[in-house]
Amino acid sequence: xxxxxxxxxxxxxYGALLALVKVGGMLRKAGDRFFKDYxxxxxxxxxxxxxxxxxxxxxxxKELCQQLLVKGANMTTLLQRMQALGLxxxxxxxxxxxxxxxxxxxxGRRLLKRVEKVYYKLVEExxxxxxxxxxxRFTRQLEETLESIERVSA
Length: 154
What we know:
By secondary structure, the chain is mainly α. The protein contains 7 helices and 3 strands; from the N terminus they run H-H-H-E-H-H-E-E-H-H.
């Protein structure tokens, strides 16, 4: 399909962009189906993943917003739902009571451990069409594209 787009629009950049958008859409749909089986959304999974790898046992809610590109009000609603499910805990920051520190609960850790194994296996299956060198190059190219977007949209 990308080759048709390139012919029609005569723009390799636009063809690559459309392919990237299509991949993103397909990943979102596949992810929705996958996480539904675990009672999660992709956003909830991403929060759990960030919290698992943050040092110090907790993360400022504002930092989660920045890491996951989610607006503050949306993040608050998401975290309230996750807290109601017992997956995370939120408490006031010692330094500033207006800020919340978010951490995984034991229930959240158990669920993440269960999901993560299957998720990584699926990711490896999807990405197996690329060599290790190809994946590194692809990652670097995507990072360069992100930097370009930030530069152009600033």
